[in-house]
């Protein structure tokens, strides 16, 4: 009896599930898998978010002169970032509730001059984006997605490798019979970034004597898309793992897919804001870019998109809303940095401290701090705010756990939490534990995904 009253015991989503909850979890995961299968880049994610929001009654803020409690507005930037807001019953002087996730994921970007021919084969040169293990990307099927802007300014969308019957691309690997020298190198050294070249063709164009295979590829691209070689310079084309999201396990309890860091939080926070009606405080779902490379640029969290978003809403609530009012809004606001963390993997237990590591199936994870070594480059959430979130989760009977990103001095990583905190928000990291994070196939529990959605919905007051 005393143990029940005094000791902290972790819970498991599946043992907590009652009645039709398991069916709800499975149904939610099917829709999530469809999202992952169809949204492979930040631009396609942006388009999906905007289309869904518009279909659910969100209106672009530019066309709205005044907003009132219950109104739903969307703000976009540079075809990559979007914020969805449901106006609250209280004014912005009481603060907002914000959930921020990032749409970008590790990938291979084509270089500005990518196309070349060597030994009768055509290739595209790439530059990897974000933290990857380069060996993950060889000898697997890859798709190519993105946009090309032609010389006249016309945009051409490219999507090859994910539809039935599409060709795929690949990065070749060295056969083990000849890999004696390679096999004694460190993992970080046996494959160089400049070797991540996509194999894209091998038939020479008739009557061409020089670079005939390359010319045939250009001929095909011009026939299908109307683009020339120079158009690659004004393109954003990304090589990503081909194929749909999968169920994993005999019991189908897990989702295996590319890009779950951080699109699992993108999807769950999208669903949460769509379910939010007439909240007490204005609820904002922020979908940001560039987190994987330091939140830089005008579409990253270090830009001013969030500030501009709240200012746009503020001036439509109050014509006299000013910069001081904006700072006061932030200082009275609460946020969740919606990002994933590492789940403890029995194959690699040594890198995590098991008493404080998140478990797959243990529910949504709250992470008080991230960073590295002595908590450098992190937000360290206050005890008061952690206590608030505990109460919220317990009152809503949500299965939850705490987590850390590795043992002390093992490594570490960061999120957008510290950037949100620097604006004045109370903020904590809150998301889903993953296995194989940043690999072409990441793994998450369907139960954890659903509890994450329930957490975000409760946070918004839905």
UniProtKB/TrEMBL annotation:
<dbReference type="GO" id="GO:0008237">
    <property type="term" value="F:metallopeptidase activity"/>
</dbReference>
<keyword id="KW-0378">Hydrolase</keyword>
<dbReference type="Pfam" id="PF02127">
    <property type="entry name" value="Peptidase_M18"/>
</dbReference>
<keyword id="KW-0862">Zinc</keyword>
<dbReference type="GO" id="GO:0005737">
    <property type="term" value="C:cytoplasm"/>
</dbReference>
<dbReference type="GO" id="GO:0008270">
    <property type="term" value="F:zinc ion binding"/>
</dbReference>
<keyword id="KW-0479">Metal-binding</keyword>
<keyword id="KW-0031">Aminopeptidase</keyword>
<dbReference type="GO" id="GO:0004177">
    <property type="term" value="F:aminopeptidase activity"/>
</dbReference>
<dbReference type="InterPro" id="IPR023358">
    <property type="entry name" value="Peptidase_M18_dom2"/>
</dbReference>
<protein>
    <recommendedName>
        <fullName>M18 family aminopeptidase</fullName>
        <ecNumber>3.4.11.-</ecNumber>
    </recommendedName>
</protein>
<comment type="similarity">
    <text>Belongs to the peptidase M18 family.</text>
</comment>
<keyword id="KW-0645">Protease</keyword>
<keyword id="KW-0482">Metalloprotease</keyword>
<dbReference type="GO" id="GO:0006508">
    <property type="term" value="P:proteolysis"/>
</dbReference>
<dbReference type="InterPro" id="IPR001948">
    <property type="entry name" value="Peptidase_M18"/>
</dbReference>
């Amino acid at each position: 009896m005393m143990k029940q009253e005094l000791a902290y015991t972790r819970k498991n989503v599946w043992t907590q599930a009652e009645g039709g909850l398991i069916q709800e979890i499975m149904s939610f995961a099917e829709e999530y898998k469809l999202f992952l299968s169809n949204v492979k880049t930040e631009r396609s994610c942006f388009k999906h978010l905007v289309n869904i929001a518009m279909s659910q009654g969100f209106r672009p803020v530019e066309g709205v002169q005044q907003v009132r409690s219950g109104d739903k507005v969307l703000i976009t930037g540079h075809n990559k970032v979007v914020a969805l807001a449901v106006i609250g019953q209280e004014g912005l002087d009481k603060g907002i509730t914000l959930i921020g996730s990032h749409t970008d994921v590790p990938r291979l970007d084509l270089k500005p001059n990518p196309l070349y021919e060597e030994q009768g084969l055509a290739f595209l040169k790439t530059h990897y984006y974000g933290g990857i293990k380069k060996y993950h990307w060889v000898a697997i099927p890859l798709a190519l997605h993105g946009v090309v802007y032609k010389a006249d300014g016309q945009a051409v969308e490219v999507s090859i490798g994910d539809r039935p019957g599409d060709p795929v691309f690949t990065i070749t690997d060295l056969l083990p019979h000849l890999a004696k020298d390679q096999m004694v190198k460190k993992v970080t050294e046996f494959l160089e970034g400049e070797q991540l070249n996509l194999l894209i063709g091998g038939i020479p164009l008739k009557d061409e004597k020089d670079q005939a295979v390359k010319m045939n590829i250009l001929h095909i691209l011009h026939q299908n898309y109307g683009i020339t070689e120079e158009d690659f310079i004004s393109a954003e084309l990304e090589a990503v793992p081909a194929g749909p999201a999968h169920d994993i396990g005999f019991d189908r309890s897990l989702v295996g897919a590319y890009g779950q860091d951080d699109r699992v939080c993108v999807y769950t926070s999208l669903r949460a804001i769509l379910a939010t009606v007439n909240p007490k405080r204005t609820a904002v779902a922020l979908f940001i870019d560039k987190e994987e490379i330091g939140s830089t640029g005008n579409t990253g969290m270090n830009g001013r998109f969030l500030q501009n978003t709240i200012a746009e809403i503020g001036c439509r609530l109050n014509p006299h809303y000013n910069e001081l009012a904006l700072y006061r809004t932030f200082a009275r606001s609460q946020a969740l940095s919606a990002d994933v963390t590492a789940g403890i993997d029995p194959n690699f237990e040594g890198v995590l401290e098991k008493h404080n590591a998140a478990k797959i199936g243990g529910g949504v994870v709250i992470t008080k701090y991230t960073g590295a070594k002595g908590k450098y480059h992190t937000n360290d959430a206050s005890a008061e705010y952690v206590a608030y979130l505990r109460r919220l989760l317990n009152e809503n009977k949500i299965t939850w756990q705490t987590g850390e990103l590795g043992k002390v001095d093992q490594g570490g990583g960061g999120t957008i939490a510290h950037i949100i905190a620097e604006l004045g928000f109370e903020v904590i990291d809150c998301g889903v534990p993953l296995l194989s994070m940043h690999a072409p196939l990441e793994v998450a529990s369907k139960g954890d995904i659903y509890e994450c959605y329930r957490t975000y919905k409760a946070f918004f007051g839905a």
